[in-house]
Input
Amino acid sequence: MPENGTTPGNGRGNGSILEIDDLHSYYGASHVVQGISLSVGAGEAVGLMGRNGVGKTTTLKSIMGLEARTRGTILLNGSDLSGLAPHVRASRGIGYVPEERAVFPQMSVEENIRIGALLHRASAQRECLDAAYGLFPILAERRLQLAGTLSGGQQKMLALARALALRPKLLLVDEPTEGLMPVNVELITQAIVRATEAGVGVLLVDASFDLVMESCSRLYAMDRGVLTGMLRPSELSGADELAARYLGSVEA
Amino acid sequence: METQIILQVLNGLVVGSSIALVASGLALLFGVLHIINFAQGEFFMLGAYSVYFLLRWTENYVLSVIVGTLIVAIGGGIVVAAVVWPLLQRSNVLTLLATLGLGLIIQQLAINILGGDAKLVPPPTTMSVPIGPVNYPLYFLIVMVVGLAVLVAGSFALKYTKYGIWLRAVAQNRSMAAALGVPVPRVFVAAFIVSTGLTALAGSLLVPLYGVYPTLGTDVILSAFIVVVAGGMGNLRGAALVAILVGEVQSLGSLVVKPSVMQVCLFALVIVILMVRSRRESVLVRL
Output
């Protein structure tokens, strides 16, 4: 776990993969993200918590370059991403797992995974596929099936497997366990934990207590476009407190 | 009569496979970029002219077809990309009008520079092959085989190659493809070049059949549009199959009715196909 010193969440250097300073994003006329600063270290998963509509998804999209108008600095391994197209950011090592409409419905499971792996040499592509199938055996069983015919949970696994096939240094994951059965939540959690163990930095938006507790070393709270606090999962007593403090509701 | 039928079936395959090349070029551009390229026919015409001029220079037919296709593919692809690029984020009607304008410009330039008369190009071989009771020109059999081979190769490329997978990904979800590292601008340019190239190839292969004149593209593009609409916009396999069907209907129909009546029947056929298709929930883009 990285030492953050006196300014938690702004730990410079020390293997920081992602560093965001004073990020603003605009969606049409509305100012969705209003100056957030955070960092994600190598091998560290960081949670971004908050109610719906406070700007978590917009933050992830801004890092990926998918939001039209942003301001502020985003550093990946120390190099500035501003002005770069999404595909360039991806090739620099960012994997993105969006909340919905993620898979290519009319391509097979294997083709979906290969898209990410295509950036690598031919020999590495096979390893990427095998790694994905190792994490999610159900995808290996369905490898020739069209992705659009998978269940919602399987599509979420596929979206995560596909982003991992890029072999990213930083993984942006948006609500990977939303609406999933517990057994699938467990698989997703394992995949994310293993990614961090391999040195990948993860910025995670999710409301699942189990996933957050098992993978994240720090949690940021976000409300109406700004970060309102940071703490470690060990400081939480249980799911209810997580919900009360960060999700603004009683039920997790 | 039997001789006539066999002859027209073969003619239908020749014309059909060429229309299929043009139509799959249109379908590709629509599938990936949601662009309807009205200038497509002009690249058929330019492909034909390129063979006419290169042949005088190189005196080698195969070389002329290959070089001509490549020149028109790359040059045309870049021109279309340049015209359409600034309009990509805007309304589709704008790209449609822009390509229509581009087509008119190319056609008028061709009339001014090359003259309105038809240039004739003899087939590279006058040999014919006996097929049943018919002696069919070898060259048109080659055209048919090349056309179908390119279509089959293209569908394999779309299925298995890196750019093929990227093209399909971009067609289905552009921003998600970009987020996975697919170089979207490069894929767009590739789509423009391949689309133009398929059309130019058809034009250069078919010169000995029609000759070449500045408005040649207009006559061809109509059939190709019919095919693309009926086959399902953006659906390459559908377009290829309907193209062969249209070629056959045109050729065999000419045994029974006048060509002008045939054209009317073709439109009627398209209307019927569209009515049947609209009953199903049709998938717009399927590469």
